[in-house]
Design a protein that fits this description.
The chain is of the alpha+beta class. Helix content is 26%, strand content 12%. The chain has a 4-stranded mixed β-sheet with strand order 1-2-3-4, with helices on one face. Strand 1, helix 2 and strand 2 form a beta-alpha-beta unit.
Amino acid sequence: MSIAKDPKNVVWLISGRDGEFLDEHWGDIPNLGLSAEHGSFVKGPGATEWINMTEHMDMSWMGEVEEIFRYYTEVSVCLMTPYDIANLSDSSERAVVPLKSRRPPSHGTGGNVTHLS
């Protein structure tokens, strides 16, 4: 990649793929920075080790967001959450709840939830 060879340039490849994939396919390009999993892991130009950018972040909010994604996925036709797509091989079964009995999650809404039944 000639653009990365020019010392005047700083070139980064930002991807949703994991670091192993980026190393395998792009790791041999000198002076190319790699950003895996949408910026969760980075490896600067010339570096050999990945840095986990989320290691010290509070990710406790993810459970609530996932619940909201799952609700709207269930009430929408043919949609999948990013979590579902990333875990297509997960064999665990989700309980199927009739649509009329489902309520949207109320986390963080202050009680102002519009029910869809």
